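Q: Convert this sequence to structure tokens.
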Amino acid sequence: MDLSKKELEEGKVLKLDFTKLQKVAKCGCVLPAVVQDIESKEVLIIGYVNQEALDYAIKNKVMTFWSTSRNELWIKGATSGDYLDLKEIRINCEQNSLLFLVEIRTKGSCHTKDESGTSRKGCFYRKVTDNQLEFL
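A:
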């Protein structure tokens, strides 16, 4: 079953990409990065960072990823205007994943939009119910 991007991002069909980590492994040295709203503690987005992205984020105090699909630095908000201001970085016990605590500069952090055309606050806007997706 091949889903369009719109169906994937806005639909109710559960179609998980279990090949994502294989694709990520091919792009080089990256770590998983969980991004959390510093106030509400809501998980907003999960991405990947390499050393270049981490250095940029620390220096500029803005959430920065390494795009594993485009193989380039991804400054969150550079295209959408939905910047995430970096407040704190935490590291797990094995130093193989990062937690970024951020403040949302505008209204959202997800590249998808809600019914009113506003960026969603975070990327986790659906839940699985009986093997189907349901909007929160």
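The domain at 28-108 is CATH 3.10.20.810 (Ubiquitin-like (UB roll)).
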